[in-house]
């Protein structure tokens, strides 16, 4: 028996830095990743799909987002089981109970809206642990496993949230206790654990049966999400009483959120950065955050700015990671001597150079910006 494990679709998500047509394209890519599950399911012969929480970004969604999301789920073509998570809990404002969702929900979409067992077919069950608020006060998985015994039934636990052995806050009451999950697996009460909340593909524990699928389309930079963009194909051998299980990751995501750390201190290093950016493919679906360090002349800083301006027009987004960027600008001796200026203009440039070198932080930055603009206007700062 095969099924697909996915999670954290967060349909309706926006990224504040995406401007112009980039945000609509990113939103469409998230829906496309959902619809793409249909092709994977058909290829491997999957019976159903489980979505382990955070199907939607939040409960207050535009009607268009709900309608388009449901249409993407319809396109999958096999049963799709949705678990409410911390972004879209089953509270009083739940998207899952709003009139539009209930009226337009396709027949193949099932909301796991109660804790406990849901029969998929005879001999196959889903054990669900849905969220009813954004801050549960107990381990929801421990509660649904408490009285669950080993039967001659294949069971898939579908849950959302952090696992205690991975979370930096071990006192959080909602954490999933790995020990109780491992005990249920060892007893044969459950055979696979489909988790959501962590956006990178992650195996938990040593059983080979507990996985975070991660988000099928990237949601954050690579220092936060090391391996997003997957769906898991889970194969459980129901003919064997031990229910041996294999898990295969399929990459379906198309966007990338990259961080580049570069030292730029010479025109050659700026040229190297230019080459690195030029060689990145699929620029229209790539977000680049730059962490830059170094000390530049005003001429080289103007060349760097021209380089970044060019690529900002090509990528979905390109910008500076301010917290990890430390660029100093120091005018070089004679850097402005060949501009052909005299009199008052030359004296003004000399004053700006001195301020750029010795002024307070704000004055120095303003002087550096003025000098860089002067060079660009004179075509010396063109990359």
Distance between the termini: 58 Å
Class of secondary structure makeup = alpha/beta
Radius of gyration: 27 Å
What is the H/E order? EHHEHEHEEEHEHEEEEEEHEHEEHH
The whole-number mean of residue pLDDT values reads 92
Apparent shape: elongated
- In total, the number of strands is 16
Describe the structure.
31% of the residues lie in helices and 22% in strands. The protein contains ten helices and 16 strands. Residues 1-164 form the Calcineurin-like phosphoesterase domain. Keywords: Exonuclease, Hydrolase, Nuclease.
SSE topology sketch:
Blueprint: E1 2-6, H1 22-35, H2 37-44, E2 49-51, H3 63-76, E3 80-82, H4 99-104, E4 109-111, E5 116-121, E6 124-128, H5 140-145, E7 154-160, H6 178-186, E8 192-196, E9 202-203, E10 210-212, E11 230-236, E12 245-251, E13 256-263, H7 267-279, E14 286-296, H8 298-312, E15 317-320, E16 326-329, H9 343-358, H10 361-377
Parallel strand pairs: 1-2, 2-3, 3-4, 6-7, 7-8, 8-10, 13-14, 14-15, 14-16
Antiparallel strand pairs: 1-11, 5-6, 9-10, 11-12
Organism: Mycobacterium kubicae
Protein name: Nuclease SbcCD subunit D
GO molecular function, one term: exonuclease activity
Summary, kept brief:
The protein is an alpha/beta fold and 383 residues long. The protein has helices spanning 22-35, 37-44, 63-76, 99-104, 140-145, 178-186, 267-279, 298-312, 343-358, 361-377, and strands at residues 2-6, 49-51, 80-82, 109-111, 116-121, 124-128, 154-160, 192-196, 202-203, 210-212, 230-236, 245-251, 256-263, 286-296, 317-320, 326-329.
Output the keywords.
383 residues; alpha/beta; 6-stranded mixed β-sheet; 10 helices; 16 strands; exonuclease activity; exonuclease; Mre11_N; Nuclease SbcCD subunit D
């Amino acid at each position: 028996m095969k099924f697909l494990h996915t999670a954290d679709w967060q349909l309706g998500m926006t990224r504040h830095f995406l401007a112009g047509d980039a945000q609509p394209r990113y939103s469409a890519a998230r829906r496309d990743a959902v619809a793409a599950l249909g092709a994977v399911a058909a290829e491997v012969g999957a019976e159903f799909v489980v979505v382990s929480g955070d199907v939607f970004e939040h409960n207050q969604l535009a009607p268009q987002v709900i309608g388009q999301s449901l249409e993407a789920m319809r396109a999958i073509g096999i049963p799709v089981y949705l678990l409410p998570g911390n972004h879209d809990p089953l509270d009083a404002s739940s998207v899952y109970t709003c009139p539009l969702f209930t009226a337009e929900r396709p027949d193949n979409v099932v909301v796991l809206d109660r804790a406990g067992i849901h029969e998929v077919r005879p001999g196959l069950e889903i054990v669900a642990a849905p969220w009813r608020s954004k801050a549960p006060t107990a381990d929801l998985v421990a509660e649904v496993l408490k009285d669950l015994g080993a039967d001659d039934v294949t069971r898939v636990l579908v849950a959302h949230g952090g696992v205690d052995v991975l979370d930096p806050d071990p006192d959080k009451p909602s954490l999933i206790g790995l020990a109780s999950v491992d005990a249920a697996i060892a007893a044969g009460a459950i055979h696979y654990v489909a988790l959501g909340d962590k956006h990178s593909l992650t195996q938990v524990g040593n059983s080979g049966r507990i996985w975070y699928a991660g988000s099928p389309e990237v949601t954050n930079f690579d220092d936060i999400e090391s391996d997003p963009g997957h769906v898991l194909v889970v194969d459980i051998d129901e003919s064997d009483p031990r229910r041996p299980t294999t898990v295969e990751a399929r990459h379906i995501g198309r966007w990338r959120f990259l961080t580049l750390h570069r030292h730029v201190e010479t025109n050659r290093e700026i040229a190297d950065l230019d080459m690195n950016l030029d060689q990145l493919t699929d620029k229209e679906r790539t977000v680049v955050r730059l962490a830059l360090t170094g000390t530049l002349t005003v001429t080289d800083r103007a060349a760097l700015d021209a380089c970044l301006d060019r690529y900002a027009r090509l990528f979905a987004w390109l910008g500076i990671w301010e917290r990890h960027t430390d660029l100093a600008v120091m005018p070089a001796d004679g850097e402005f001597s060949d501009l052909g200026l005299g009199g008052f203009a030359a004296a003004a440039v000399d004053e700006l150079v001195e301020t750029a070198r010795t002024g307070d932080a704000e004055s120095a930055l303003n002087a550096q910006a003025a000098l860089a603009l002067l060079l660009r206007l004179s075509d010396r700062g063109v990359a």
